[in-house]
Amino acid sequence: MNFHTRKWVKPEDLNPNGTLFGGSLLRWIDEEAAIYAICQLDNQRVVTKFMSEINFVSSARQGDIIELGMTATHFGRTSITLRCEVRNKITRKSILTVEKMVFVNLDENGEPAPHGRTQIRYAEETFARYRESSRQVPQSAVAVEDERAAARAEADSLH
Ligand SMILES: CC(C)(COP(=O)(O)OP(=O)(O)OC[C@H]1O[C@@H](n2cnc3c(N)ncnc32)[C@H](O)[C@@H]1OP(=O)(O)O)[C@@H](O)C(=O)NCCC(=O)NCCS
């Protein structure tokens, strides 16, 4: 499980009991899980479809640093299932677990669309793909400029 995001529990995140408000935690988890699903499926159009029961294992207090962990447990045809855990960064004591969060990959019409993924994509792979695609930019820019020059030459020859 990868723990990417750290949060510092502040006064505005507390419930009247003086511990971390569950709603704040769920908002952070939903966003973190959505980002994870977006990166795994390489598509910004993903929506939360299902969340299993949430186990608030222990409370966090003001000043605690907590970290949010995610892992993909299943790749479906249009969906991805994640397991989530939040823990205290220093003590590693578990604060919350969600066994199952399902996100659905959508097309431009908002309909479920196959994502074609079958296994976890790691950050290095995503970066390598980005580097590969950005390497192609100058080539395609040259190709576009060549096309423009050819069009100008053709236009000139018509005059
Ligand atoms: C997401 C949505 C388009 C899916 O529509 P749908 O008619 O349920 O689509 P499908 O029946 O084709 O199911 C899509 C996928 O979700 C899975 N799924 C559907 N219901 C599920 C459930 N209760 N639990 C787990 N997975 C479920 C299906 O198994 C399928 O996955 P697969 O293709 O990998 O097998 C629709 O339910 C929706 O728009 N929901 C609202 C989403 C939303 O607003 N979320 C909150 C804000 S992000």
> Oligomerization state of this entry?
single chain
The largest β sheet comes out as: 6 strands, antiparallel
How many helices in DSSP terms?
A: 2
Give me the secondary-structure category.
alpha+beta
- What's the total number of strands? 6
Order of SSEs, N→C?
Answer: EHEEEEEH
Average the pLDDT over all residues and give the rounded result.
89
Explain this structure.
This protein is α+β, with helices and mostly antiparallel strands and 159 residues long. The chain folds into two domains: 2-118, Hotdog Thioesterase (Thiol Ester Dehydrase, Chain A), CATH 3.10.129; 122-159. The protein is 35% helix and 31% strand. It contains two helices and six strands. It has helices at residues 22-41, 123-158; strands at residues 2-8, 46-51, 54-56, 65-75, 79-88, 94-105. Strands 1, 2, 3, 4, 5 and 6 form a six-stranded antiparallel beta sheet that branches. The chain is elongated and about 70 Å long. 19% of the residues are buried. The protein binds coenzyme A. Coenzyme A (COA) is lined by residues 47-50, 76-79, 102, 104, 112.
